[in-house]
Specification:
two-stranded antiparallel ribbon, 4 helices, single chain, 116 residues, alpha+beta, two-stranded antiparallel sheet
Amino acid sequence: NIHCDSCPMKFTFRKLLEDHNTEFHPKFHCVPCDINFQGPTSLHDHNLKLHEIISGDPCHICGKHVKRSSMANHVKMVHQGEDMRKHLCNICGNAYKTKTDLDRHYTKHTGQKQYT
């Protein structure tokens, strides 16, 4: 008998175990949706479509997925240094770390789309 590593089930043929694992213990599982996928590509596509998860590692502070090469910059720009907020809105006084963030903010005051 062949034992399932994930539950007490036993099988006489490896193919039956593989079919069982595919149906009941898939390796590709979306935790938030509680949905199983047959392979990594379908899970990745699902994550991009529904959860906007990009490839990369989760930030240890906020959990956002960021490319490994960008992680230090992400932590510095998003989570550290309030003194880095040098771009001030002349309408409401909010401060931003980048000119791009300030420009995006201004659209809330003007109602204009940033890129047309």
